[in-house]
Each structure stands twice: as structure tokens, then as C-alpha cells.
């Protein structure tokens, strides 16, 4: 049966019958319609019923950094695809070379870009690099990869093996060996308040390294700001001490910028907020703002040089990403970067992020269920609690009821859910970097109304 493209009922039934959606339980679709988004412009999207929504999560998963309807990106992609759509990554392309040069220009100290097409895949590449370096240069011993509780690095088995969100991992084991968890800095906040808290939290990482054996640890993989785990900004002194520890034990520092990259926090990359120099940086999502699939695994020249050995036929990085050879990704990324530069969107992220943070903190005076507001740039979170005194997390069902209420109002927000047992209690906000004051106020006004109704 051909689809009548102008008939919403036909489209909805085709979706219900054949599409397997991401992160969704489909049982309710037996009695309710799946939501289908058909158009976007700026900060707003429209569903198939014609209802307009203000998008406070940049495409649902923090991706559309420059907003919807950017004809300059679409036109550049169209022109490139007609000229040269694809060639395997063993060869070069003009947009691949151009974007790599522009990207490295934003990342002092790094020099090489490996293309792939999703954040999970970019992290897989990094893990493979660490493992191959271990075999080539350390006799296979320095192979372990440390990851942090609450951090998230992707959906593959290897990425879940490096994932600190137990509910996301549930039912997908057994996992790959050689991945070792370190505590999150948040665990040390209550017992180590005040000056020096960041350094003491970082010390927990060194404790794990010493327990495992420094000569067995190849890399430490961390998000600059914990994203889906609750938008947690590490405390002062934390990142500097983490870098010192990595240098001390010759451990590669791998920063996962899949969420925080490309202006989300107010700088080009989240790690740049903390004055550190990583060895490996992975990114996706906002690299092309969802206009094309692209991810990058970026390394220092030192890491790259570890694979330059023509005396060993197995010594090069023996990896391929089929669709890492698509030219649509880098050409969209070039236009995306130009928009961020021309419209000063990093600065806007800082300014509008501060407005959102102020608005949410103002709501704390009205709603006792807001235990803490935290974030950086246009990446903000409001943690909901049963009691501020005990910090007991709000029940996940009530948190999601707030999200549902906002959706009814025509505002799409996010929340940590089905990730960490007992701690899925943070409302998440990541609007496009083009957001204006009226957009920010509309988002927080919707949260105010939702909290009033849900917590009544």
C-alpha cells in the first residue's frame, strides 16, 4: 500500500505498524498514537496534528545546536552530494580535509581527526586505539580503560561496558572485559564539602589506579560535564588534579564531548572551560546539528604517531567506518561551524544559559521540590527532591509527569530517566544555541506551571 503523504492517519498507522522507535516502550501505541514530528523552524517544531512545540532539548537528544530550517546547511549538503557524495575513508575528500583543518583550529594541542558517524562509534574508535597502543607499545598490559559512575558513552556493548548508568546497561551483559569504574565526584560532596572537595574527589580516581596497577591502565574516559547522569559540573580543582594524575601514570585522557561539544557550554568544547589538555576528544551530535550524520575522534600527534610504523604490517589503525566516508557530514559541519561563529552562538549560550540558570533558581523560592540547579551555558539541570534537607530524590514517575505536563503545554523538556536506580530525578534543558530571552522565559514558565500542578 502506498502512503498518502498528506493523510496523517495513514502516516500514523504506517509508523505504528512498522517503525521501531528509540528508547520507547511500544505497548501504549496499541491505544495511543505515536507522536510524529513533521517540520521545524528555529526553536520550534510541529507534529503531524499541527501542534506547535518549543523545543528545549535540541531535537530530543541535544543535537540541533543551530536550530531548525537552516537552508544554508541544506543547500551546501545538496551541492556536495551532487558533486561527490561518498568515497571510503582510505581516500580523502575536499570537505573532509577542510573541516578537519577548521576543527583542529578550535582545539589547540590536538592535530588529527578520524571520521565516523555516531557518538557511540567515535568512542569505540578511541577504545580500539587505546587497546592497539597497549599491544604495540606495552606488550598488551596497559589495556584497561577507566570510566566514571553516572557518565554515558554510547549504546554499543563496548560503550555500555564503559557506561556508568546501571539501568541503561541492564539486560545487555555480559560486557567487554578491561573496563573499570571510578566513583563520581558527586559521591564525595556530602562528606567533603568546602575547599579542596574537587581535589579529594579526583583522588578517588588515583585510588582506583593504584588498586588496579598503573601499568595496566591505558586511558581514562570522562564527560567534561556529566550529561544524562544529571548535568553535574565537576567542582573547582577536580579537572586539574585529574589531568595531573593521568600525566603521572602515562594514562591517556579521553574526553567525551558528544554532548558538550560545539558551543553547548559556552566554549567550543566543554573541556576548554577547565583549562586542561586531553589526548583524545570524541564528538558527534552538535558537530553538524543533526543536518547530517558525523562524528569525530580527535587525537594529539603523539597518539597518531604511535600507529606510524611501516615495519609492522599490522601496525596501522586497522579500522573503518563505512559512512565516515560520506561527504555530507563534514560539509554540513563546516556550515554549522560558520553559523556558530557568525552569530556568536558560544557567547549567546553563555548569556542565555545564565538567564535559564537564574530563572530556575528563582523557581526554587516557589517550589521546595527543586533541590539544586546546576549547569553551564545552555546545558542546565534542575534536580527534584522529596526534601531539601535529606536530598531524597523525587520519584521518577513524578519527574516524568512534569515532563508530560510541559509537553501538553507545547514545551519539550527532558529528564534523566531509566538510567540510574533511584536517581532519575533531574529535569534536563539543552535548547538550541540560538535561544533568545523570550524562549528561555517560556521554557521556565512552563516548568513553573507543571511543578505547580504535579506537586499539588
From TrEMBL:
Pfam (any one): Aminotran_3
Task: Indicate yes or no for the key word rRNA-binding.
Answer: no
Cofactor(s) for this UniProt protein: pyridoxal 5'-phosphate
Entry keyword Transferase? yes
What is the superkingdom listed in this entry's lineage? Bacteria
Q: Which keywords does UniProt give here?
A: Aminotransferase, Pyridoxal phosphate, Transferase
Q: Name one GO cellular component term.
A: cytosol
Family classification = Belongs to the class-III pyridoxal-phosphate-dependent aminotransferase family.
Q: What is this protein called?
A: Aspartate aminotransferase family protein
- Its source organism is Marivivens niveibacter
Amino acid at each position: 500500500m502506498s502512503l498518502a503523504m498528506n493523510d496523517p492517519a495513514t502516516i500514523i498507522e504506517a509508523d505504528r505498524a512498522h517503525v521501531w522507535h528509540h528508547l520507547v516502550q511500544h505497548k501504549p501505541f496499541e491505544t495511543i498514537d505515536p507522536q510524529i514530528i513533521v517540520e521545524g523552524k528555529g526553536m520550534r517544531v510541529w507534529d503531524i496534528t499541527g501542534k506547535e512545540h518549543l523545543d528545549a532539548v535540541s531535537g530530543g537528544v541535544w543535537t540541533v545546536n543551530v536550530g531548525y530550517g537552516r537552508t544554508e546547511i541544506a543547500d551546501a549538503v545538496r551541492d556536495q552530494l551532487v558533486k561527490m557524495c561518498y568515497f571510503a575513508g582510505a581516500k580523502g575528500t575536499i570537505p573532509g580535509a577542510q573541516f578537519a583543518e577548521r576543527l583542529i583550529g578550535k582545539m589547540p594541542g590536538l592535530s588529527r581527526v578520524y571520521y565516523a558517524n555516531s557518538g557511540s562509534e567515535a568512542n569505540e574508535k578511541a577504545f580500539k586505539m587505546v587497546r592497539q597502543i597497549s599491544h604495540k607499545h606495552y606488550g598488551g598490559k596497559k589495556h584497561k580503560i577507566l570510566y566514571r559512575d553516572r557518565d554515558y558513552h554510547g549504546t554499543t556493548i563496548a560503550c555500555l561496558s564503559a557506561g556508568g548508568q546501571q539501568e541503561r546497561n541492564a539486560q545487555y551483559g555480559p560486557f567487554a572485559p578491561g573496563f573499570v569504574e571510578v566513583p563520581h565526584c558527586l559521591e564525595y560532596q556530602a562528606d567533603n564539602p568546602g575547599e579542596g572537595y574537587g581535589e579529594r574527589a579526583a583522588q578517588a580516581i588515583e585510588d582506583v589506579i593504584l588498586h588496579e596497577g598503573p601499568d595496566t591502565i591505558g586511558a581514562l574516559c570522562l564527560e567534561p560535564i556529566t550529561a544524562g547522569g544529571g548535568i553535574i559540573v565537576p567542582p573547582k580543582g577536580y579537572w586539574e588534579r585529574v589531568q595531573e594524575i593521568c600525566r603521572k601514570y602515562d594514562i591517556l585522557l579521553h574526553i567525551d564531548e558528544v554532548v558538550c561539544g560545539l558551543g553547548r557550554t559556552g566554549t567550543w568544547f566543554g573541556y576548554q572551560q577547565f583549562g586542561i589538555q586531553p589526548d583524545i576528544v570524541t564528538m558527534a551530535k552538535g558537530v553538524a546539528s543533526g543536518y547530517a550524520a558525523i562524528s569525530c575522534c580527535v587525537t594529539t600527534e603523539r597518539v597518531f604517531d604511535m600507529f606510524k610504523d611501516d615495519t609492522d604490517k599490522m601496525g596501522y589503525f586497522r579500522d573503518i567506518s563505512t559512512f565516515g566516508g560520506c561527504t555530507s557530514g563534514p560539509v554540513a559541519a563546516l556550515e554549522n561551524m560558520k553559523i556558530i561563529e557568525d552569530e556568536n552562538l558560544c557567547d549567546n549560550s553563555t548569556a542565555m544559559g545564565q538567564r535559564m540558570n537564574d530563572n530556575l533558581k528563582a523557581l526554587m523560592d516557589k517550589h521546595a521540590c527543586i533541590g539544586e540547579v546546576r549547569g553551564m551555558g545552555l546545558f542546565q539541570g534542575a534536580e527534584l527532591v522529596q526534601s531539601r534537607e535529606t536530598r531524597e530524590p523525587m520519584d521518577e514517575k513524578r519527574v516524568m509527569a512534569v515532563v508530560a505536563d510541559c509537553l501538553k503545554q507545547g514545551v519539550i523538556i527532558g529528564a534523566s530517566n531509566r538510567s540510574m536506580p533511584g536517581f532519575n530525578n533531574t529535569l534536563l534543558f539543552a535548547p538550541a544555541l540560538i535561544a533568545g530571552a523570550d524562549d528561555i522565559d517560556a521554557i521556565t514558565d512552563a516548568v513553573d506551571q507543571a511543578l505547580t500542578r504535579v506537586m499539588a
